[in-house]
């Protein structure tokens, strides 16, 4: 066989076409054909090497995504259906994006506990330690929640999910979080918080029936606003970080999709959410890690020794706010990409209403950990941080029955207990 191939090639090489003499390089036809092939080749190379997300930031983002993106097939569809199956009377069927994230895990577990159908979606990127995300995934798996591995920018995947399940609701929590990281990787904020959100809304608007959407905005949209406590009616046109700007953009985008397509949209402005299974990039989390390791921590202070404070909000209170938002969300009014009438559009602050100085947060941690922190005081860096946050929650209280009930001391006690059991003696160490 090998011989045959070789001899054929040899034979072909040896043979000369009768036209060979006439078709020389300097002939215009040969030149034209040659350059046409080169041009076509370049187009093909460009086409196949472009990331499918067609984002100018695609390569950076795909480096961070550890997703295998394998989906589809009868067994996969069966798993998706089973996870999204409603098991209680009047239950809802929810697609939770960012389900392996901190808030996403807690919300998914709570929905599943009360018999709702829940399907997770997460790209498992490495913004922070993905093993923590995998541990959350394992936790959800045990309660019957399946997390599909994929990106919200993958429109084909989203369409497939809506083809397999007629979701009544979407809890959209997938996002690039963190205020300070926006100066390190600005592109990831555009990719997830803007392009990803639009990709999701595009699919939701065409879905039949259209789902109602509840999504995570942020307290950071208040930016340089100095009027306290922050009310939903206050100005939000002075973001202090790109993160805040992308969340603010999300609120405007939500308005557009509500206006044009009749999508029911509720944005939740979360105020510094903390608790067990939290995010390692947040101060309360890495302060705990560093205090235990005997490493120095930096505490920010504003000009003239001004106090920096946050309206820290415990995860269980946030979960209640999320579920109440889903339960009070009205149906979207459009179908097949066409608006049929006005639809609900809401924004709520979900905070704790009692700001605590960061120095107090550290004092509480010292007491709970029984270790004295090595502290250095630093001027609040000009990298997106604001001096304080304070939520006015009267609107959420009135419309959602939202009533936060966990103070920082109580919430941190639960966090530290979890932290020590998760990272404690002989177990994994926080990265
Ligand atoms: O409400 C939100 O919408 C946002 O909340 C969270 O942002 P922040 O409120 O900034 O939380 P976080 O970083 O934990 O800093 C806490 C405090 O510690 C101070 N801080 C921070 C770091 C440090 O080294 N020293 C320090 O004093 C710092 O100045 C601050 O006062 C989410 O991360 C964000 O994704 C978004 O959801």
Q: Give the count of structural domains.
A: 1
Fill in the CATH topology. Answer: Rossmann fold
- Overall mean confidence score, pLDDT: 88
CATH superfamily: NAD(P)-binding Rossmann-like Domain
Q: Proportion of β residues?
A: 5-15%
- The coarse overall form would be globular
CATH class: Alpha Beta
List the helices and strands and how they pair.
Blueprint: H1 2-14, H2 28-49, H3 58-64, H4 74-84, E1 93-97, H5 102-113, E2 117-122, H6 130-142, E3 146-149, H7 155-164, E4 169-172, H8 186-206, E5 212-218, H9 242-261, E6 265-270, E7 273-274, H10 283-293, E8 296-301, E9 309-310, E10 313-314, H11 315-328, E11 345-350, E12 356-357, H12 358-369, E13 374-379, H13 394-400, H14 408-423
Parallel strand pairs: 1-2, 1-4, 2-3, 4-5, 5-6, 6-11, 7-10, 8-13
Antiparallel strand pairs: 9-12
Helix pairs in contact: 5-6, 5-11, 7-8, 8-9, 10-12, 12-14
The structure holds the ligand O=C(O)[C@H]1O[C@H](OP(=O)(O)OP(=O)(O)OC[C@H]2O[C@@H](n3ccc(=O)[nH]c3=O)[C@H](O)[C@@H]2O)[C@H](O)[C@@H](O)[C@H]1O.
Features:
14 helices; disordered N terminus; binds ligand UGB; Rossmann fold; 431 residues; alpha/beta
Q: If you had to describe this structure to a student in words, what would you say it looks like?
A:
The protein has 431 residues and is of the alpha/beta class. The protein has helices at 2-14, 28-49, 58-64, 74-84, 102-113, 130-142, 155-164, 186-206, 242-261, 283-293, 315-328, 358-369, 394-400, 408-423, and strands spanning 93-97, 117-122, 146-149, 169-172, 212-218, 265-270, 273-274, 296-301, 309-310, 313-314, 345-350, 356-357, 374-379. The protein has a single domain, classed as Rossmann fold. Helices cover 44% and strands 13% of the residues. The strands form four sheets. Strands 3-2-1-4-5-6-11 form a seven-stranded parallel β-sheet, sandwiched between helices. The protein has a two-stranded parallel sheet with strand order 7-10. Helix 8 links the parallel strand 4 (169-172) and strand 5. The longest helix is centred in the first third of the chain and has 22 residues, at 28-49. Bound molecules: ligand UGB. The ligand O=C(O)[C@H]1O[C@H](OP(=O)(O)OP(=O)(O)OC[C@H]2O[C@@H](n3ccc(=O)[nH]c3=O)[C@H](O)[C@@H]2O)[C@H](O)[C@@H](O)[C@H]1O binds at residues 177-179, 218-220, 270-272, 282-283, 298-300, 308, 310, 358, 385.
